[in-house]
Specification:
The protein is mainly alpha-helical. It is built from two helices and two strands, in the order E-E-H-H.
């Protein structure tokens, strides 16, 4: 990943200040290659979403259900 020139890793087009960095850490991408499908991204966005949901939504059990279980 060469951050000094800021070129797209796929097409080598200059991206300047509008470049995109993916979570897969493969480097900078232009607007055509910023989507995971267009540059062969290996980052698992679904797993990240699942983890975020489980952290933000803990299991809640009521007091009256403790005696029954």
């Amino acid at each position: 990943m060469n951050t000094s020139t800021n070129r797209c890793e796929i097409c080598k087009k200059k991206v300047g200040l509008l470049g995109f960095i993916c979570k897969c850490e493969k480097g900078w991408f232009c607007r055509e290659h910023r989507y995971p499908e267009s540059h062969g991204c290996t980052y698992d966005y679904k797993e990240e979403g699942r983890e975020m949901i489980t952290l933000k939504n803990p299991v809640v059990k009521g007091e009256k259900l403790k005696d029954r279980c």
